[in-house]
Amino acid sequence: MMPELTDRAAQQRLEAHHAHLVAAVDGAVAELDRACLDDDPAAAANAAVRFQILLEEDIGPHAAGEERSFYAAAEPLNGALVRSLTEEHELLRGLIRACGRGSADLGQRAGRLSHLGLAHEVRALFRAHAHKEDAFVTPLLLRAMPAGTVAALFVEMHAMPAAAQS
Length: 166
Description:
Helix content: over 70%
CATH architecture: Up-down Bundle
Strand content: under 5%
Low-confidence stretches: 162-166
Oligomer: single chain
Radius of gyration: 17 Å
Number of domains: 1
Number of helices: 6
Mean pLDDT: 92
Largest sheet: none
Distance between the termini: 31 Å
């Protein structure tokens, strides 16, 4: 039998997961940078596909899972914070859609550079957003909610099937 997850362990795992996602976005954008700046349409198209998969299969579902678990619990405690973070999720979703549409223009240099600009927007927004979640949402829940809440929310968020998260 596995030991029960504590709130502090759940917080550490969530922060580690955010760090992993940030590093994945950073790496994908760096790969796209290299391909676009080397003026290599085929490499740019491949990098763009990998970036889009990361956004659609990891970032999008993660955001939806947070909204259904951590944000729902934090809303009564600080509605303004949760609304602002939810609006950032909406911005991310819009950028994910824009990146998907922009991948059709990768054959032209201007299209590659435009797509690269979108990727940099995603990276900047996601880095700041993950930091705010780690700095404000989880600590708020740890201070205001009964022991075990953060651990339960972490388990709930990660127990959701990917299709239900997006």
